[in-house]
Design a protein that fits this description.
The protein is mainly beta. It is elongated, with a radius of gyration of 15 Å. The structure holds zinc ion. Zinc ion binds next to loops.
């Protein structure tokens, strides 16, 4: 079992480096942190309809 990885599980990629500073997203208008990525968990998510929740500026990117 040890060498067998089920297909579809992709834990091994850049995003799983916990505490990587460059993964956070800040609003370019008000400067608040709108997405805080810690590994594959996103504890902070302040985007609503592709816009910053604080000031309403549209944030370029792919948000689902
Ligand atoms: Zn903003």
């Amino acid at each position: 079992m040890s060498a067998t990885w089920p297909k579809g599980i992709r834990y091994v990629y850049v995003g799983n480096v916990a505490g990587h500073e460059g993964n956070h997203t800040y609003c370019h208008h008000c400067g608040k942190m709108i997405v805080e990525r810690t590994g594959f968990i996103i504890p902070t998510y302040q985007i609503e309809k592709n816009a910053c929740k604080f000031c309403g500026t549209l944030i370029p990117g792919k948000w689902s």
